[in-house]
Amino acid sequence: MAVTLNETPGSNRLHIGIFGKTNSGKSSFINAFTKQQVSIVADVAGTTTDPVYKPMEIYPLGACVIIDTAGFDDDTELGERRVKKTKLAAEKTELAVIVVADEALEEEFSWFYFFKERNTPVLFVVNKSDILENTKTIAAAIEAETKTPPLFISAKTGEGIEKVKEALARLIPENYGSRLITGEEDLVLLVMPQDIQAPKGRLILPQVQTIRELLDKKCLVMSVTTDKMERALAALAEPPKLIITDSQVFGYVYEHKPGESMLTSFSVLFAACKGDLPYYVEGAKCLDSLRPDSKVLIAECCTHAPLKEDIGREKIPRMLRKRVGEELTVDLVSGTDFPENLSGYDLIIQCGACMFNRKYVLSRIDRAKEQGVAMTNYGVVIAHLAGILDKITMP
Fold it and tell me: Is residue 25 packed enough to be buried (19+ CB in 10 Å), middle (13-18) or exposed (0-12)?
């Protein structure tokens, strides 16, 4: 899975989604909020089509991604598609801002409850407060419905924008960003095969993020390719406390590692960091009950051009069919193309999701749970098929 660091849209940043009706002033608000011309502003319904994702550093919020969305009341010819994209952006949103500019609030409240069901904090912002005459009526309606008063702003003059930033900072969940890829370790050995899937001259994103975190924790980090693993171990004065490797070489690394060294994979670490690892482990049990007439969905997050021996398109399907039978149906989706209806599948296998934030991955998991479909992860699947899942260190 050749995904490099500069290809990610900010999966580890706080995602702040801006929502509202067409011409409520969402784009003007974003430009005032970021102090940049991020979004096109025009008095034409449907100016914003696909969501715009803008990585930013904004005090006091820190590293974040601002998402400008199409109006959720878009009734143009392409409106249905635009609203669908807006819903997808909502599934990635960790803090939601609903921009209001009139008294008709039925749709705004509908979206408020959409976010509330997903435990996403919501901030109502009344825009155009410098020209609106009924702000008190609007504010009273919002507070009566949400139990929280809105903030008043003028995207045109900038009034109230700093208060919005302060309010959003207070809404950030206390445990946000505390899900670490690894635990505190002393000496860590990374066994990283650089095969055809690895981009020339670069590392894949899970490796980059893991190395950075280990360095931040002041760990001693040694990185080698698979064929140099035994030589690296011989050069060390003591066995590594943890070995992290690619799931595809689990078997080899397990056979050659010191008995006292713990073993895990980048994919398993990301399963815990981005998803629900216990749920994935439980879902892997369904591998034992698959039949030749079963149907499996493989869900990749990145949209790279497939190469020979691609893990999601070739290796995992081949491993499954070898175990279950060549008649097994294996479908694959990539990027954000995740089906609404999952009921036809017996198992979903999700990649490590290094390209997406945890909020969006959990929305996929929730959809699978609601429809009663088991779900697991690349690394968990490979460890289970290799018979060593119970021997893998789980974060």
Answer: buried
CA distance 122 to 126: 13
| Tens of pLDDT, residues 177-217 | 766 777 777 899 999 987 656 667 778 888 988 999 899 88
CATH number of residue 312's parent domain: 3.40.50.11410
Separation of CA 248 from chain center? 23
CA distance 319 to 330: 11
Residue 77, in any domain of the structure: yes
Task: Say yes or no: 263 and 325 in one domain.
Answer: no
Last residue of a domain, one of 241, 269, 297: 269
- Residue 332 burial class via C-beta count within 10 angstroms: exposed 0-12, middle 13-18, buried 19 and up: middle
List the domain range (segments joined by +) for residue 316. Answer: 276-391
Same domain, 150 and 102: yes
> Residue 58's beta-bridge partner residues?
62
User: What CA–CA distance (Å, rounded) separates 33 from 27?
Assistant: 10
| Both structure tokens of 104 | 């008709």
**122 and 94 part of one domain:** yes
pTM for the model stands at 0.82
- Residue 338 is which amino acid? F
349 burial via Cβ count (<10 Å: 0-12, 13-18, 19+) = buried
